């Protein structure tokens, strides 16, 4: 384990020190994946490669919110140490996805990890899900690769698919090796709400309803007027709606309403993805679901099939959002499924 951590650190340092070339061949400055943003005297946001991290420094220790990927964890630790000598006491996972919990294996040795009950449930079920689903994904990738090799062997897509196939095989292999007792899942879980009282600060973690998954928490620090939404908020970014893990767009909107009603209206809001912003932008994100649902409803009322709706429904006002081309059609399909399920 120490070896892996050392390797990851070495790799991180290598990535930081080697000047990266952009696709056009011109060298550009790369200061590593991290950008640290001070929000208040004690609260910070840390942008890196996965979901946004938040952390709060108190006189009795640090509380961290989310931890991106395993290979970035030592770098995250280093960023926190650059502003305080206080130890990390608690880590809160906003939900179970790997870009928010990947560093758990590193931080669980020094901190108590807190999350909603379903975060632990989904993390422990992950290897079994992979073993159940990966063979189908591998077969699908192999047939697409075979088809491309026959019809379009120069295609750029081919090397991407081969890489994806390799990754999926590796993920399956490690899922087969994984012991449930080795999974660094949260060791302190709650159903509705928990409060941490540390060094004169109160840090609230609360679950409202289903949203991006069925286990999302919002973290609120009233004294600092800072909110971390996890992936309940994608800022200027088309969201991921994880229906397989209990997502619901209706309850997601209700969740946003409850957060807006609860937090100070002048709060700074850390989204799961995108830049730190405010409560008005969070409300605008709810509008995305209202517009999406109205458009899909119209397609259903016009008698369109799921496939036809995915092809026809467009929301031009969101076309500039990150991930529109990749994720918007999927969002339409999911809402179609929600609306046509009994
Ligand atoms: Zn995420
Ligand atoms: Zn997520």
Describe this protein's structure.
44% of the residues lie in helices and 18% in strands. The N terminus is likely disordered. It is globular. It is built from 10 helices and 15 strands. It has 3 domains: 206 residues, Ribonuclease Z/Hydroxyacylglutathione hydrolase-like (Metallo-beta-lactamase, Chain A, 4-Layer Sandwich); 62 residues; 53 residues. The protein has a 7-stranded mixed sheet with strand order 3-4-5-6-7-8-9. Strands 10-11-12-13-14-15 form a 6-stranded mixed sheet. β14 and β15 form a beta hairpin. The protein is α/β, with parallel strands linked by helices.
Structural class: alpha/beta
Output the strand order for the largest sheet: 3-4-5-6-7-8-9
Largest sheet: 7 strands, mixed
Radius of gyration: 21 Å
CATH superfamily of the largest domain: Ribonuclease Z/Hydroxyacylglutathione hydrolase-like
According to CATH, the fold-level topology of the largest domain is Metallo-beta-lactamase, Chain A
Attached small molecules: zinc ion
Helix content: 40-55%
Q: Spell the H/E element sequence.
A: HEEEEEEHEHHEHHEEEEEHEEHHH
Indicate the CATH architecture of the largest domain: 4-Layer Sandwich
Question: At the first level of CATH, what is the class of the largest domain?
Answer: Alpha Beta
Distance between the termini: 48 Å
- As for the number of domains, it is 3
Characterize the overall form. globular
What fraction of residues sit in β-strands?
15-25%
Q: What ranges have pLDDT less than 50 throughout 5 or more consecutive residues?
A: 1-29
Helical stretch tally? 10
Mean pLDDT figure = 92
> How many strands appear in the DSSP assignment?
15
């Amino acid at each position: 384990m120490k070896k892996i951590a050392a390797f990851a650190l070495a790799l991180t340092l290598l990535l930081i020190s080697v000047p990266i070339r952009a696709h056009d061949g011109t060298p550009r400055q790369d200061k590593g994946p991290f950008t640290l943003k001070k929000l208040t005297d004690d609260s910070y946001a840390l942008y890196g490669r996965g979901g946004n991290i938040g952390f709060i420094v108190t006189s009795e220790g640090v509380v961290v919110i989310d931890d991106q990927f395993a290979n970035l964890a030592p770098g995250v630790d280093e960023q926190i140490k650059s502003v305080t000598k206080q130890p990390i006491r608690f880590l809160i996972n906003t939900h179970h996805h790997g870009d928010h919990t990947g560093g758990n294996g590193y931080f669980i040795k020094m901190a108590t990890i807190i999350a909603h009950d379903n975060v632990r449930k989904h993390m422990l079920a992950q290897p079994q899900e992979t073993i159940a689903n990966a063979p189908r994904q591998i077969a699908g990738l192999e047939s697409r690769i075979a088809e491309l090799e026959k019809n379009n062997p120069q295609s750029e897509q081919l090397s991407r698919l081969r890489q994806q196939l390799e990754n999926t095989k590796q993920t399956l292999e490690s899922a087969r090796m994984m012991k449930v007792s080795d999974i660094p899942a949260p060791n302190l879980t709650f159903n509705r709400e928990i409060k941490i009282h540390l060094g004169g600060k109160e840090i609230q973690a609360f679950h409202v309803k289903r949203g991006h998954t069925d286990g999302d928490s919002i973290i609120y620090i009233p004294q600092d007027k800072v909110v971390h939404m996890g992936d309940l908020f994608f800022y200027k970014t088309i969201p991921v709606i994880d229906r397989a893990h209990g997502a619901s767009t209706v309850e997601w909107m209700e969740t946003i309403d409850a957060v807006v009603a609860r937090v100070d209206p002048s709060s700074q809001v850390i989204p799961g993805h995108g830049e730190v912003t405010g409560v008005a932008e969070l409300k605008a994100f709810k509008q995305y679901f209202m517009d999406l649902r109205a458009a899909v409803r119209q397609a259903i009322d016009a008698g369109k099939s799921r496939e036809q709706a995915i092809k026809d429904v467009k929301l031009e006002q969101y076309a500039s959002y990150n991930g529109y081309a990749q994720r918007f059609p999927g969002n339409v399909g999911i809402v179609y499924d929600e609306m046509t399920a009994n």
